[in-house]
Each structure stands twice: as structure tokens, then as C-alpha cells.
Amino acid sequence: MMYPFMTLNDETEIVHSDMQKDGRVKVYIERPDEQYGFKHAVCWLPQYKWEDVHHFTEEEIKQFEEIIGEIQYYC
Predict the structure, then answer these.
(1) Does residue 71 have a pLDDT over 90?
(2) Is the pLDDT of residue 70 over 90?
(3) Which of 27, 33, 47, 49 could lock onto 43 through a cystine, CB 3.0 to 4.6 A?
């Protein structure tokens, strides 16, 4: 199950899973985009391992890392 964490002013949605048995938390990020339909990415905490990144820039990913660091305190 995924839980809402935050919606940014640019309509980016950030959701997260419960903590897995191995201690990881899955974070899913998506933003509507006129060209691609949606930009999206998955990040696994606490390692900040990114996968399935589609159309986000490296700079955007770095900004997301700052925001999603807070999720570790809520899970």
C-alpha cells in the first residue's frame, strides 16, 4: 500500500510505502507532463537508490532527495 506524503506546487505527487521487512521504504514520485504524460521515478530509502527514472533531470532528483529525506522520520 502507498501513502500520500506531499503534493508540490507543480503538481508533483510523492507517495511512500510502509517499511518493508528488510527496512527499506519505497518512494514513488510522479508529475504530469504535456510532452510525456507523466514523469516518474522510484527511490528506495534509506539507501537513496533510484530506479525507473523517466524524464526527471539530475537536478530534479537532487531536489527530491532533500524532500524525501523527511519520509524516514514518518515511517
Answers:
(1) no
(2) no
(3) 27
